[in-house]
Specification:
alpha/beta, five-stranded mixed sheet, 20% strand
């Protein structure tokens, strides 16, 4: 029998599934906000709501980065706020370590723990997380090919089978 996933592995795998919704084809990132083993909010990197996706119209590049998208962590925080969900004391699971602007949002939102899958660009978050008492955890979860089906086809309504 396979080993049962830890809670950290479980929520990181959910973040990886959330990342499959990303609309920037340069990098797919997913984030999940969790408190007391309960998902509070999710987010993925994508264009501003109502604007075309980078994958459709191209990238808005500045200093080697596409700046057209809202990052996964920011979108998870925004969705929690839009839905009136307090995230004080939460853990955020993100498939890539937060950039500096996202780290500042995470810190000011009251999250106490950041679990990330891969390091991405900005090491400032390590020093400031320590100063702020925010726990940083790097978690490498092995790929499981059957975790995210690549093509399941469109959803179809269930037909009454009686």
């Amino acid at each position: 029998m396979d080993r049962r996933a830890s809670w950290d592995e479980y929520f990181m795998n959910i973040a990886r599934v959330v990342a499959t919704r990303a609309t920037c084809d340069r990098k797919h990132v997913g984030a999940v906000l969790v408190r007391d083993k309960t998902i509070l909010s999710t987010g993925y990197n994508g264009s501003i709501r109502g604007l075309p996706h980078c994958s459709e119209v191209g990238h808005m590049m500045e200093d080697g980065h596409c700046v057209a998208t809202v990052h996964a962590e920011a979108n998870a925080i925004i969705q929690a706020a839009k839905n009136g969900v307090a995230i004080e004391g939460a853990t955020i699971y993100t498939t890539a370590s937060p950039c500096w602007p996202c780290f500042k949002l995470i810190a000011n939102s009251g999250c106490r723990r950041i679990v990330f899958g891969e390091f991405y660009r900005d090491s400032r978050v390590f020093d400031f997380a320590k100063q702020l008492g925010i726990e940083l955890v790097e978690l490498k979860v092995p790929e499981k090919p059957d975790l995210v089906p690549t093509d399941t086809g469109p959803a179809r309504p269930v037909v009454d089978r009686s």
